Amino acid sequence: MRIIVAPDPVLRQKCSSVTPEELPKLTKKAKQMAKLMYKSEGCGLAAPQVGIAKRLIVIDTNTPKEGEKFEPNPTFLVNPVLSRLSDEKDTCSEGCLSIPGISIDIERATELELDALDLDGNEVHIEASGFAARALQHELDHLDGITMFEHLDPISRIEKLQEFEQAKAAGAKPGDTGTTSNAGDTGTTKSSSAAGVAAPSTSAAAPSDSTAGMVVPSGTCTTNTSPQITAHGKDSS
Ligand SMILES: [Zn+2]
After folding, report:
1. Residue 141 sits in a domain of what CATH number?
2. What is the 141 CA–ligand 1 centroid distance (Å)?
């Protein structure tokens, strides 16, 4: 299993729902996805990013407190469906494991709720805010074939695509974001605040013009200060 890097048709595809018959088979893949996510210092990964066009994501936006060791605690969501997006939004710089070497400012709702299944097929209700809400929206986009580029106006998109081509030519790998301050599924926010985990190197992805590769988050980035994800089991009775 490896991370698919843009451009690849699977990243632009609307993924199909996981059927009850498929779920047991996907469980092993889901665990592999989590391993790959941690290895790549990501905080989220969607199945299409590993070439599986199914509605399955894994996310872990837990941020250890100063001095605490990072304990993996992945949340697997199957067939997630948004039930609420807050009107309140903020804009923050995001990275993507499938778009290494660059970051893009994206406006997202600051809170959301969704319903999904866990890997055992149990219904779960998720409430998320801040960084977790942003990361979930990023991963849900992947399930509908939407990458960070699709959030841009046509001119910014061309600029970012050029920047991405330069970053790839410079050897950018999944996990590189070209900046140390962002969210999205690359998880550099988590990495840089996690004790003992070095922030990913930006040198490999830096274009020759040293300022061109820096992405400064616009707006107040509350997504970094209030990571919260709450899962409730649903009563089937
Ligand atoms: Zn992504």
Report:
1. 3.90.45.10
2. 8
